[in-house]
């Protein structure tokens, strides 16, 4: 079995250097990065063809030019990645081949999604973005380095520091994410679950919706679940049918103590006698 300490969910990043291409548009929202109709796909990869899909119908769009081929650093402008929350926007940029995007600011959710997926979303001052964009447009071979260890961008003999969340930086430098962090605490989580009151719901390996998968845990350790007709905390053994709901064919609903129901009369439905 693979040790939880060996789990590596994202690729470690220290320094990325690549050719830059300029998008040259402000207020680029996530629906422009990846139109909503492409968000129905399953999985986290295979979105290269969706990036700026509507804009790429224009032959003159920057990503359709030969100079953009192979570029890995996208130079944006103001307010990149605003609008609705969709992690697909980050996946589309990554699958196209970009490893970093530089802008004066980002949508909050896009920024979090980027760092959680190992994608470098770097905030720089407006004058730095303008200088980098001018150099990249003048020279298709212009290269930019994003140094996550030093927290700085270097290009053309100039250097700019950039802010980054300390925890996001530490995880990405180590090639880890929040899931691998949680797996490191598996023993502590198990100890916490073991100390919970017996009437509280709990999860065990192999348990799905209160049932036991084959060979997982014995029936005596079935999850406390709530089924129709059972009290909170009742244990439903695996394979046992849930209690029938009142009114079902298997358990006729009792009418004891209930006043007899009368049929609608002409008066009750508003019909004149």
SSE layout:
Layout: E1 15-22, H1 30-33, E2 73-75, H2 88-96, E3 100-103, H3 108-116, E4 120-123, H4 126-138, E5 143-147, E6 152-155, E7 158-161, H5 166-174, H6 178-184, H7 186-194, E8 207-208, E9 211-212
Parallel strand pairs: 1-2, 2-3, 3-4
Antiparallel strand pairs: 1-5, 5-6, 6-7, 8-9
Low-confidence stretches: 1-7, 208-238, 262-273
Overall geometry comes to globular
How many domains would you count in the coordinates?
A: 2
Instruction: Name the CATH superfamily assignment of the largest domain.
Output: Aconitase, domain 4
Strand content: 5-15%
CATH topology of the largest domain: Aconitase, domain 4
CATH architecture of the largest domain: Alpha-Beta Barrel
Largest sheet entry:
7 strands, mixed
- Strand order across the largest sheet: 4-3-2-1-5-6-7
DSSP, total strands = 9
Secondary structure category:
alpha/beta
Structure annotation, total helices: 7
Query: Under the CATH scheme, which class of the largest domain?
Result: Alpha Beta
Describe this structure in words.
The chain is α/β, with parallel strands linked by helices. It has two domains: 12-180, Aconitase, domain 4; 197-221, no CATH class. The protein is built from seven helices and nine strands. A seven-stranded mixed β-sheet has the order 4-3-2-1-5-6-7. It has a two-stranded antiparallel sheet with strand order 8-9. Strand 2 (73-75), helix 2 (88-96) and strand 3 form a beta-alpha-beta unit. The longest helix is centred in the middle third of the chain and has 13 residues, at 126-138.
Brief synopsis:
The chain is α/β, with parallel strands linked by helices. It contains seven helices and nine strands; from the N terminus they run E-H-E-H-E-H-E-H-E-E-E-H-H-H-E-E.
């Amino acid at each position: 079995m693979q040790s939880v300490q060996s789990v590596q969910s994202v690729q470690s990043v220290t320094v990325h250097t690549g050719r830059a291409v300029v998008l040259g548009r402000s207020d680029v929202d996530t629906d422009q990065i990846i139109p909503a109709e492409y968000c129905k796909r399953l999985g986290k990869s295979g979105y290269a063809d969706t990036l700026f899909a509507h804009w790429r119908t224009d032959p003159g769009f920057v990503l359709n030019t030969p100079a953009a081929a192979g570029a890995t650093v996208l130079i944006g402008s103001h307010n990149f990645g605003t609008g609705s929350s969709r992690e697909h926007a980050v996946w589309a940029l990554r699958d196209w081949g970009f490893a970093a995007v530089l802008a004066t600011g980002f949508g909050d959710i896009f920024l979090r999604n980027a760092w959680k997926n190992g994608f470098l979303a770097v905030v720089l001052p407006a004058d730095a973005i303008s200088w980098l964009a001018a150099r990249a447009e003048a020279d298709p071979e212009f290269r930019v380095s994003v140094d996550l260890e030093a927290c700085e961008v270097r290009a053309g003999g100039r250097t700019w520091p950039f802010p980054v969340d300390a925890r996001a930086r530490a995880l990405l430098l180590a090639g880890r994410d929040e899931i691998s962090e949680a797996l490191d605490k598996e023993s502590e989580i198990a100890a916490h679950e073991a100390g919970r009151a017996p009437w509280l719901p709990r999860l065990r390996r192999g348990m799905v919706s209160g049932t036991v998968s084959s060979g997982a845990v014995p029936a005596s350790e079935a999850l406390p679940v709530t089924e129709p007709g059972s009290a909170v905390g009742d244990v439903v053994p695996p394979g046992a049918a849930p209690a029938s709901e009142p009114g079902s064919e298997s358990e006729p609903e009792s009418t004891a103590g209930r006043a007899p129901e009368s049929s609608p009369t002409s008066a009750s439905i508003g019909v004149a006698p």
